Amino acid sequence: MVTYDGLMPDPNRRVLLARPRGYCAGVDRAVQTVELALERFGSPVYVRKQIVHNTHVVRSLEERGAVFVEETAEVPEGSVVVFSAHGVAPQVRKDASDRHLRTIDATCPLVTKVHNEARRFAAQDYDILLIGHEGHEEVVGTTGEAPARIQLVDGPGGSDSVQVRDPARVAWLSQTTLSVDETSETVAALRGRFPQLLDPPSDDICYATQNRQAAVKQIAPESDLVIVVGSRNSSNSVRLVEVALEAGAPAAYLVDDAADLSKEWLESASTVGVTSGASVPEDLVSGVLDWLAESGFGTVEEVETVREGTVFALPHDLRRRPDDRRPDDRRPDDRRPDDRRPDDRRPDDR
User: Fold this and answer.
1) Does residue 138 have an active-site annotation?
2) Whole-structure pTM over 0.70, yes or no?
Protein backbone atom coordinates (compact mmCIF):
# COMPACT_ATOMS: atom_id res chain seq x y z
CA MET A 1 0.00 0.00 0.00
CA VAL A 2 1.27 3.47 -0.94
CA THR A 3 0.10 6.87 0.29
CA TYR A 4 1.06 10.15 -1.32
CA ASP A 5 3.19 12.32 1.01
CA GLY A 6 1.99 15.83 1.64
CA LEU A 7 -1.61 14.96 0.84
CA MET A 8 -4.44 14.05 3.16
CA PRO A 9 -6.02 10.96 1.61
CA ASP A 10 -9.63 10.21 2.45
CA PRO A 11 -9.58 6.88 4.36
CA ASN A 12 -12.81 5.94 2.61
CA ARG A 13 -11.31 6.46 -0.84
CA ARG A 14 -8.72 4.18 -2.39
CA VAL A 15 -7.15 3.12 -5.67
CA LEU A 16 -6.75 -0.52 -6.69
CA LEU A 17 -3.76 -0.61 -9.03
CA ALA A 18 -3.60 -3.67 -11.26
CA ARG A 19 -0.37 -5.56 -11.76
CA PRO A 20 0.80 -6.54 -14.31
CA ARG A 21 0.05 -3.50 -16.43
CA GLY A 22 1.82 -1.41 -19.04
CA TYR A 23 4.69 -2.43 -21.29
CA CYS A 24 4.89 -6.05 -22.36
CA ALA A 25 8.09 -7.66 -23.65
CA GLY A 26 7.10 -7.17 -27.30
CA VAL A 27 6.40 -3.46 -26.88
CA ASP A 28 9.58 -2.92 -24.88
CA ARG A 29 11.56 -4.65 -27.62
CA ALA A 30 9.90 -2.58 -30.38
CA VAL A 31 10.48 0.77 -28.67
CA GLN A 32 14.10 -0.14 -27.89
CA THR A 33 14.53 -1.14 -31.53
CA VAL A 34 13.67 2.34 -32.78
CA GLU A 35 15.76 4.02 -30.09
CA LEU A 36 18.83 1.90 -30.88
CA ALA A 37 18.34 2.32 -34.64
CA LEU A 38 18.42 6.09 -34.16
CA GLU A 39 21.55 5.75 -32.01
CA ARG A 40 23.29 3.52 -34.54
CA PHE A 41 22.20 4.98 -37.88
CA GLY A 42 21.27 8.53 -36.95
CA SER A 43 18.18 10.48 -37.91
CA PRO A 44 16.01 9.97 -39.79
CA VAL A 45 14.98 6.38 -39.15
CA TYR A 46 11.70 5.57 -40.85
CA VAL A 47 9.04 3.44 -39.16
CA ARG A 48 6.23 1.81 -41.12
CA LYS A 49 2.98 2.44 -39.19
CA GLN A 50 3.01 3.29 -35.49
CA ILE A 51 5.73 1.23 -33.84
CA VAL A 52 3.19 0.49 -31.06
CA HIS A 53 -0.30 1.86 -30.59
CA ASN A 54 0.34 4.69 -28.16
CA THR A 55 0.29 8.35 -29.12
CA HIS A 56 2.76 9.41 -26.41
CA VAL A 57 5.34 6.80 -27.43
CA VAL A 58 5.07 7.77 -31.08
CA ARG A 59 5.41 11.48 -30.28
CA SER A 60 8.46 10.85 -28.10
CA LEU A 61 10.19 8.89 -30.85
CA GLU A 62 9.34 11.55 -33.42
CA GLU A 63 11.07 14.10 -31.21
CA ARG A 64 14.19 11.92 -31.32
CA GLY A 65 14.19 11.74 -35.11
CA ALA A 66 11.92 8.84 -36.08
CA VAL A 67 9.70 9.44 -39.11
CA PHE A 68 6.47 7.45 -39.21
CA VAL A 69 5.03 6.52 -42.60
CA GLU A 70 2.10 4.45 -43.77
CA GLU A 71 3.88 2.53 -46.52
CA THR A 72 7.43 1.77 -47.62
CA ALA A 73 6.81 3.73 -50.84
CA GLU A 74 7.15 6.88 -48.71
CA VAL A 75 10.65 5.91 -47.58
CA PRO A 76 13.58 7.26 -49.67
CA GLU A 77 15.50 4.49 -51.41
CA GLY A 78 18.40 3.10 -49.39
CA SER A 79 17.07 4.39 -46.07
CA VAL A 80 16.57 2.52 -42.80
CA VAL A 81 13.01 1.40 -42.08
CA VAL A 82 11.67 -0.38 -39.01
CA PHE A 83 8.65 -2.68 -39.23
CA SER A 84 6.25 -2.19 -36.33
CA ALA A 85 5.50 -4.65 -33.54
CA HIS A 86 2.27 -5.69 -35.29
CA GLY A 87 4.02 -7.46 -38.16
CA VAL A 88 3.86 -7.09 -41.93
CA ALA A 89 2.76 -9.18 -44.91
CA PRO A 90 5.40 -10.75 -47.19
CA GLN A 91 4.53 -8.24 -49.91
CA VAL A 92 5.67 -5.40 -47.66
CA ARG A 93 9.06 -7.07 -47.24
CA LYS A 94 9.33 -7.48 -51.02
CA ASP A 95 8.43 -3.84 -51.60
CA ALA A 96 11.12 -2.78 -49.13
CA SER A 97 13.68 -5.01 -50.85
CA ASP A 98 12.76 -3.57 -54.26
CA ARG A 99 13.47 -0.10 -52.90
CA HIS A 100 16.81 -1.24 -51.43
CA LEU A 101 15.73 -0.31 -47.93
CA ARG A 102 17.65 -1.48 -44.89
CA THR A 103 14.92 -3.19 -42.88
CA ILE A 104 14.85 -3.82 -39.15
CA ASP A 105 12.06 -6.08 -38.00
CA ALA A 106 10.47 -5.12 -34.67
CA THR A 107 7.60 -7.60 -35.06
CA CYS A 108 6.64 -9.11 -31.70
CA PRO A 109 7.86 -12.73 -31.60
CA LEU A 110 4.37 -13.82 -30.56
CA VAL A 111 2.94 -12.26 -33.73
CA THR A 112 5.67 -13.97 -35.74
CA LYS A 113 4.49 -17.25 -34.22
CA VAL A 114 1.00 -16.67 -35.63
CA HIS A 115 2.48 -15.87 -39.06
CA ASN A 116 4.41 -19.15 -38.96
CA GLU A 117 1.25 -21.06 -38.05
CA ALA A 118 -0.63 -19.43 -40.95
CA ARG A 119 2.05 -20.49 -43.43
CA ARG A 120 2.13 -24.02 -42.04
CA PHE A 121 -1.65 -24.52 -42.16
CA ALA A 122 -1.79 -23.04 -45.67
CA ALA A 123 0.98 -25.38 -46.83
CA GLN A 124 -1.13 -28.28 -45.53
CA ASP A 125 -4.08 -26.97 -47.58
CA TYR A 126 -6.26 -25.98 -44.63
CA ASP A 127 -8.79 -23.17 -44.72
CA ILE A 128 -7.76 -20.78 -41.94
CA LEU A 129 -10.30 -18.84 -39.89
CA LEU A 130 -8.51 -15.82 -38.42
CA ILE A 131 -10.32 -14.38 -35.40
CA GLY A 132 -9.67 -10.65 -35.19
CA HIS A 133 -10.75 -7.14 -36.07
CA GLU A 134 -10.93 -6.01 -39.67
CA GLY A 135 -8.30 -3.46 -40.60
CA HIS A 136 -6.08 -4.04 -37.57
CA GLU A 137 -2.44 -4.06 -38.69
CA GLU A 138 -1.76 -7.43 -37.12
CA VAL A 139 -4.69 -8.99 -38.98
CA VAL A 140 -3.60 -7.42 -42.27
CA GLY A 141 -0.07 -8.78 -41.83
CA THR A 142 -1.18 -12.30 -40.91
CA THR A 143 -3.69 -12.45 -43.76
CA GLY A 144 -0.94 -11.50 -46.18
CA GLU A 145 0.87 -14.76 -45.40
CA ALA A 146 -1.85 -16.80 -47.16
CA PRO A 147 -4.58 -14.53 -48.54
CA ALA A 148 -6.21 -17.30 -50.58
CA ARG A 149 -6.64 -19.50 -47.50
CA ILE A 150 -7.50 -17.03 -44.70
CA GLN A 151 -10.95 -15.72 -43.79
CA LEU A 152 -11.50 -13.10 -41.08
CA VAL A 153 -13.98 -13.89 -38.32
CA ASP A 154 -14.83 -10.79 -36.25
CA GLY A 155 -16.51 -12.09 -33.11
CA PRO A 156 -18.96 -14.96 -32.47
CA GLY A 157 -21.53 -13.52 -34.88
CA GLY A 158 -19.04 -13.65 -37.72
CA SER A 159 -19.05 -17.45 -37.67
CA ASP A 160 -22.40 -17.65 -39.44
CA SER A 161 -21.10 -16.39 -42.78
CA VAL A 162 -17.99 -18.56 -42.98
CA GLN A 163 -17.75 -20.87 -45.99
CA VAL A 164 -15.00 -23.49 -46.35
CA ARG A 165 -13.97 -25.96 -49.02
CA ASP A 166 -13.74 -28.99 -46.73
CA PRO A 167 -15.19 -28.95 -43.18
CA ALA A 168 -12.63 -31.61 -42.23
CA ARG A 169 -9.69 -29.32 -43.07
CA VAL A 170 -10.31 -26.11 -41.15
CA ALA A 171 -8.04 -24.44 -38.57
CA TRP A 172 -8.35 -21.26 -36.52
CA LEU A 173 -5.85 -18.61 -35.48
CA SER A 174 -6.35 -15.32 -33.66
CA GLN A 175 -5.07 -11.79 -33.32
CA THR A 176 -2.86 -11.74 -30.23
CA THR A 177 -4.56 -8.81 -28.46
CA LEU A 178 -8.17 -9.99 -28.28
CA SER A 179 -10.41 -10.59 -25.29
CA VAL A 180 -9.75 -14.10 -24.04
CA ASP A 181 -13.43 -14.69 -23.26
CA GLU A 182 -14.76 -13.38 -26.57
CA THR A 183 -12.21 -15.43 -28.50
CA SER A 184 -13.34 -18.56 -26.63
CA GLU A 185 -16.95 -17.77 -27.56
CA THR A 186 -15.98 -17.30 -31.21
CA VAL A 187 -14.07 -20.60 -31.27
CA ALA A 188 -17.07 -22.36 -29.71
CA ALA A 189 -19.37 -20.90 -32.37
CA LEU A 190 -17.01 -21.99 -35.14
CA ARG A 191 -16.67 -25.47 -33.66
CA GLY A 192 -20.45 -25.74 -33.62
CA ARG A 193 -20.35 -25.39 -37.40
CA PHE A 194 -17.08 -27.28 -37.96
CA PRO A 195 -16.67 -30.03 -35.33
CA GLN A 196 -13.24 -31.00 -36.70
CA LEU A 197 -11.88 -27.46 -36.35
CA LEU A 198 -8.15 -27.65 -35.66
CA ASP A 199 -6.61 -25.58 -32.86
CA PRO A 200 -3.28 -23.76 -33.19
CA PRO A 201 -0.35 -25.61 -31.56
CA SER A 202 -0.40 -23.11 -28.69
CA ASP A 203 -2.56 -20.22 -27.52
CA ASP A 204 -2.34 -17.25 -29.92
CA ILE A 205 -3.51 -14.59 -27.46
CA CYS A 206 -0.30 -13.27 -25.95
CA TYR A 207 0.66 -13.86 -22.33
CA ALA A 208 0.64 -10.11 -21.59
CA THR A 209 -2.86 -9.61 -22.95
CA GLN A 210 -4.14 -12.51 -20.86
CA ASN A 211 -2.31 -11.37 -17.72
CA ARG A 212 -3.62 -7.80 -17.96
CA GLN A 213 -7.15 -9.01 -18.50
CA ALA A 214 -6.87 -11.35 -15.50
CA ALA A 215 -5.64 -8.46 -13.34
CA VAL A 216 -8.57 -6.28 -14.41
CA LYS A 217 -11.01 -9.07 -13.59
CA GLN A 218 -9.51 -9.12 -10.10
CA ILE A 219 -10.02 -5.41 -9.37
CA ALA A 220 -13.21 -4.68 -11.33
CA PRO A 221 -15.76 -6.23 -8.91
CA GLU A 222 -14.42 -4.07 -6.05
CA SER A 223 -14.22 -0.86 -8.08
CA ASP A 224 -16.84 1.83 -8.62
CA LEU A 225 -15.08 2.67 -11.85
CA VAL A 226 -11.99 1.45 -13.69
CA ILE A 227 -9.60 3.75 -15.51
CA VAL A 228 -7.62 2.15 -18.33
CA VAL A 229 -4.67 4.18 -19.58
CA GLY A 230 -4.14 3.62 -23.29
CA SER A 231 -4.76 5.02 -26.77
CA ARG A 232 -8.00 4.42 -28.63
CA ASN A 233 -6.28 2.60 -31.49
CA SER A 234 -4.77 0.11 -29.01
CA SER A 235 -6.76 -3.09 -29.31
CA ASN A 236 -5.57 -4.57 -26.02
CA SER A 237 -6.39 -1.33 -24.16
CA VAL A 238 -9.91 -1.21 -25.60
CA ARG A 239 -10.37 -4.85 -24.58
CA LEU A 240 -9.39 -3.99 -20.99
CA VAL A 241 -12.31 -1.55 -20.79
CA GLU A 242 -14.67 -4.24 -22.07
CA VAL A 243 -13.28 -6.84 -19.68
CA ALA A 244 -13.64 -4.47 -16.71
CA LEU A 245 -17.31 -3.89 -17.49
CA GLU A 246 -17.98 -7.59 -18.05
CA ALA A 247 -16.24 -8.40 -14.73
CA GLY A 248 -18.58 -6.16 -12.75
CA ALA A 249 -17.24 -2.60 -12.80
CA PRO A 250 -20.20 -0.17 -13.00
CA ALA A 251 -18.15 2.10 -15.27
CA ALA A 252 -14.85 1.98 -17.13
CA TYR A 253 -13.03 4.67 -19.11
CA LEU A 254 -10.14 4.67 -21.58
CA VAL A 255 -7.82 7.68 -21.23
CA ASP A 256 -4.62 8.65 -23.03
CA ASP A 257 -3.32 10.40 -19.93
CA ALA A 258 -4.42 12.36 -16.86
CA ALA A 259 -5.67 15.23 -19.03
CA ASP A 260 -8.60 13.05 -20.12
CA LEU A 261 -9.84 12.44 -16.56
CA SER A 262 -13.05 14.00 -15.23
CA LYS A 263 -13.95 14.95 -11.66
CA GLU A 264 -17.54 13.93 -12.40
CA TRP A 265 -16.47 10.27 -12.55
CA LEU A 266 -15.50 10.41 -8.87
CA GLU A 267 -18.65 12.00 -7.45
CA SER A 268 -20.03 8.84 -5.85
CA ALA A 269 -16.91 6.66 -6.01
CA SER A 270 -15.00 5.23 -3.08
CA THR A 271 -12.79 2.76 -4.99
CA VAL A 272 -11.14 3.42 -8.35
CA GLY A 273 -9.42 0.69 -10.31
CA VAL A 274 -6.45 1.66 -12.49
CA THR A 275 -4.57 -0.28 -15.13
CA SER A 276 -2.87 0.34 -18.48
CA GLY A 277 -2.54 -1.32 -21.85
CA ALA A 278 0.52 -3.21 -23.01
CA SER A 279 1.92 -0.26 -24.99
CA VAL A 280 1.66 2.34 -22.20
CA PRO A 281 4.74 3.75 -20.43
CA GLU A 282 4.51 3.80 -16.65
CA ASP A 283 4.90 7.56 -16.34
CA LEU A 284 1.41 7.99 -17.83
CA VAL A 285 -0.01 5.77 -15.07
CA SER A 286 1.91 7.82 -12.49
CA GLY A 287 0.27 10.95 -13.86
CA VAL A 288 -3.18 9.40 -13.37
CA LEU A 289 -2.29 8.37 -9.81
CA ASP A 290 -1.09 11.90 -9.04
CA TRP A 291 -4.36 13.32 -10.33
CA LEU A 292 -6.38 10.87 -8.25
CA ALA A 293 -4.30 11.66 -5.16
CA GLU A 294 -5.06 15.35 -5.58
CA SER A 295 -8.75 14.37 -5.72
CA GLY A 296 -8.57 12.54 -2.39
CA PHE A 297 -7.68 9.08 -3.65
CA GLY A 298 -4.19 9.03 -2.17
CA THR A 299 -4.18 5.46 -0.87
CA VAL A 300 -3.03 2.98 -3.51
CA GLU A 301 -3.27 -0.79 -3.10
CA GLU A 302 -1.44 -2.78 -5.78
CA VAL A 303 -3.23 -6.00 -6.72
CA GLU A 304 -0.88 -8.50 -8.36
CA THR A 305 -2.23 -11.58 -10.13
CA VAL A 306 0.96 -12.90 -11.73
CA ARG A 307 4.62 -11.91 -11.98
CA GLU A 308 6.07 -11.31 -15.41
CA GLY A 309 9.70 -11.75 -16.35
CA THR A 310 9.60 -12.39 -20.10
CA VAL A 311 12.29 -10.66 -22.16
CA PHE A 312 12.63 -10.83 -25.95
CA ALA A 313 15.99 -10.48 -27.67
CA LEU A 314 16.50 -7.45 -29.88
CA PRO A 315 16.61 -7.83 -33.69
CA HIS A 316 19.95 -9.27 -34.84
CA ASP A 317 21.00 -6.05 -36.59
CA LEU A 318 20.87 -4.13 -33.31
CA ARG A 319 22.42 -6.56 -30.86
CA ARG A 320 25.73 -5.42 -29.45
CA ARG A 321 28.58 -7.87 -29.44
CA PRO A 322 29.44 -9.22 -25.98
CA ASP A 323 32.75 -7.36 -25.98
CA ASP A 324 31.24 -3.92 -26.69
CA ARG A 325 28.34 -3.97 -24.28
CA ARG A 326 28.64 -1.99 -21.11
CA PRO A 327 27.49 -3.74 -17.90
CA ASP A 328 24.37 -1.56 -17.74
CA ASP A 329 23.47 -2.59 -21.31
CA ARG A 330 23.18 -6.27 -20.43
CA ARG A 331 19.76 -7.76 -20.95
CA PRO A 332 18.36 -9.58 -17.90
CA ASP A 333 19.16 -12.93 -19.48
CA ASP A 334 22.84 -11.94 -19.82
CA ARG A 335 23.27 -11.71 -16.06
CA ARG A 336 24.17 -14.71 -13.98
CA PRO A 337 21.16 -16.44 -12.39
CA ASP A 338 22.23 -15.23 -8.95
CA ASP A 339 22.45 -11.54 -9.92
CA ARG A 340 19.18 -11.26 -11.84
CA ARG A 341 16.47 -9.29 -10.10
CA PRO A 342 13.30 -11.28 -9.26
CA ASP A 343 11.21 -9.36 -11.83
CA ASP A 344 13.73 -10.27 -14.55
CA ARG A 345 13.48 -14.00 -14.09
CA ARG A 346 11.92 -15.96 -16.89
CA PRO A 347 9.01 -18.26 -15.98
CA ASP A 348 11.27 -21.29 -16.38
CA ASP A 349 13.63 -19.92 -13.72
CA ARG A 350 10.96 -19.97 -11.05
Assistant:
1) yes
2) yes
How far is 283 from 291, CA to CA, in rounded Å? 12
Rounded to the nearest 10 degrees, the angle between the axes of helix 109-123 and helix 25-41 is 110
Q: Single out the residue of 253, 249, 274, 275 nearest to residue 264, CA to CA.
A: 253
Task: Report how far residue 180's alpha carbon sits from residue 166's, in angstroms, rounded to the nearest whole number.
Answer: 27
- What's the CATH number where 218 sits? 3.40.1010.20
Tens of pLDDT, residues 27-75:
999 999 999 999 999 999 999 999 999 999 999 999 999 999 999 999 9
Query: Which residues, 6 or more positions from 206, have their beta carbon under 8 angstroms from its beta carbon?
Result: 24, 26, 108, 110, 176, 177, 278
Q: Which domain holds residue 51?
A: 25-108
Does residue 317 fall inside a structural domain? no
Q: What are phi and psi of 252, to 5 degrees?
A: -150, 140
The domain boundary, picked from 108, 135, 155, lies at: 108
User: Residue 312 domain-assigned?
Assistant: no
From 138, 145, 264, 294, active-site residue? 138
Give dist(CA 310, CA 316) in Å, integer.
Answer: 18
Which distant-in-sequence residues (6+ apart) come within 8 Å of 185 by Cβ? 156
User: Taking Cα atoms as reference points, which of 180, 235, 241 lies closest to residue 207?
Assistant: 180
